[in-house]
Amino acid sequence: MSVTSTVRTMSSAAAASTVTEATRAAVQEYLAARVAGDIGRLVALFADEVDWLLAENPGVPWIRPRSTGVECAAQLTELMEYTVPEEARASVDTLLVDGTDAVLMGHLSGTVRATGKSFEGPFALRLTVEDGRITRHHLYENSLSIAMACAP
SS3 sequence, the chain? Predict the structure, then answer.
């Protein structure tokens, strides 16, 4: 009886490891697509319906509610339209992956094209990956700094 139990535990651990590694691979693909500005890859990575959370910020044109994969991928295009791409920076200090969930923590900065003002601050991003596609995208960032940079 204990042999069967041990086999099941090892099998469950192997399955969890496989899910975790698949999540890690999808997150790394997401990061590579963002860096490359590859909207097509981003659309393919996002699920058809996404649980998107980014605190609404009426003064920031690229921050708005989204729910489809196409809308989520378009956020990168909008961000590049309203900011100076050459001055955009993001660093990931921590990547934690457990099963289908991943959390990235780091720092971001940029400059708003219309005002020439800079923003910066820490961020945390929670992603959930199911069947190789991102189903949850919750971003927590320094929204005050971004709003101030957008204000005339």
Answer: CHHHHHHHHHHHHHHHHHHHHHHHHHHHHHHHHHHHCCHHHHHHHEEEEEEEEECCCCCCCCCCCCCEHHHHHHHHHHHHHHECHHHCEEEEEEEEEECCEEEEEEEEEEEECCCCCEEEEEEEEEEEEECCEEEEEEEEECHHHHHHHHCC
